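CO-FOLDING WORKSHEET

Operator: S.A.
Ligand of interest: magnesium ion
Run index: 507
Mode: holo prediction, single chain
Checklist:
[x] sequence pasted
[x] SMILES validated
[ ] output reviewed
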Amino acid sequence: MFGKAKQNQRDLFESERSFRLLVEGVADYALYMLDPNGIVTSWNIGGERIKGYTPSEILGRHFSAFYTETDRANGKPQRALKIAEEQGRYEEEGWRVRKDGTFFWASVMIDPIREDGRLVGFAKITRDITERREAQLKVEQMQAKLAESQKLDALGQLTGGVAHDFNNLLMIISGSLHTLRKGVPDEPRLQRALSAIEAASRRGAALTGQLLTFARRQSVNPQAVNVVERIDAIRDVLRTGVGSTVALQFDVGRSVWPVMVDVTELETALVNLVINARDAMPDGGNIRIAANNTTLREEAHSGDYVAISVEDSGTGIAPDVLSKIFDPFFTTKPVGKGTGLGLSQVHGFAHQAGGTVKVTSELGKGTKIAILLPRKDIDVPVDEISATASGGSGTVLLVDDNPEVAAVSSSLLEQLGYTVRRVDNAEAALREVERDGIDFVFSDIVMPGKMDGLALARHLKAIRPRLPILLATGYSDAAVNVRDDFPILRKPYEIHQLSQAIAKLPR
Ligand SMILES: Nc1ncnc2c1ncn2[C@@H]1O[C@H](COP(=O)(O)OP(=O)(O)OP(=O)(O)O)[C@@H](O)[C@H]1O
Ligand SMILES: [Mg+2]
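OUTPUT RECEIVED:
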């Protein structure tokens, strides 16, 4: 018997010892005891690891040492013990303080310990869940980003709508200009005024374009483009844009391959890059515009590309800014100076054309931004964009609900030599087609009423398969699904673009 009792005692001792070892050895949790007043009476390795105190430093001290000063001042530690005693448990997540004064996000549990109904102390478990909390915050940030992108989508829809109306206005301005130029006497003052209006309407068109690219609503009109010619064509615009303190250097190889892009978009992208380069050189400097052939061997982009680059000797871009420069509305420029859409347009343009954008920048030295566009196979004829409009003949049925736009369009058509019949809706257009004598139809896409321009075009294609149809739009949601069926002219268009589009109609 005696032996058995001793054995029991030894077992008890062993199990207590192993339990103590277990508690002391748990490194991921601070497991310790408090006396009824909150004085620390035991300590484990987890406590030391998480809070930084050795047993000798903390045993005998009040546990409020782990709380922030504000929490202490508010009596939070005492309240926690009281709640634990009254409700049988206290649980919380909150900031706690380590010995070295740093904070960690803690998950805390306090359990009262009773012996024969009498409170003898508290068991306390604390976990450091700073990392978990950070992961959670990251998730929340991602959700915020998603919300942000949904907001941008909504904003895109709004800008798309505004841009449509705006393009109609621009169409009236730029179209009327062409007519005015013919009638206005060759007086420098008047010609200058006309040029100013022209420049302003171009700028307006550029801005709407930027908004549309951002909204990914740009109706792209890709065509085979001779890069050398296009850069030549906007040389003067660029020179005027950069001002006199900046030297503009062109380095464009004559044998640069053609690319398949939207001409207006390409020009806008170049202007955006050059203006950025100028802004990065407040005290002047050099800008080099280059175009050359290159072959890429990358996963996403491989094959023949044309690199069009703009290089400046300006401020350069700081590494933390670099990752954001393509974000819509990201700008480091003062309010009113930059909208932060320039590089968004460049990015949207390059990617829509199947290419990409590369940036190299060194603080204090300068920046080089290159647009890489896939080479266009030669078999497609490169567009000769002639500024002079070639004449035509025949009768066109013009369908447009906006009287001012219609007036301008018919004036342009007449200048090109066509006879114009005008209607303001699709139903009237169908009646007019019945009357015969129409050589082709030129219709706006977005129109009120049962049938928009696209529906009209499809209907006409069914009943009059040989009647050529040209569509126009300042808005491109509709344009996206039409592209293959019918040629589309983007508003605002100039007379040579109109004449070209008509010339290309199948007859
Ligand atoms: N060549 C450059 N050198 C230094 N920083 C540049 C350069 N190009 C762009 N950046 C930085 O990238 C930011 C975004 O450029 P982005 O063209 O998108 O907008 P923005 O020029 O600020 O405004 P916006 O072009 O709409 O008028 C700029 O504000 C600038 O901080
Ligand atoms: Mg810019």
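REVIEW:
The longest strand covers residues 103-115.
The chain has four domains: 2-128, 146-214, 227-374, 395-503.
[x] output reviewed
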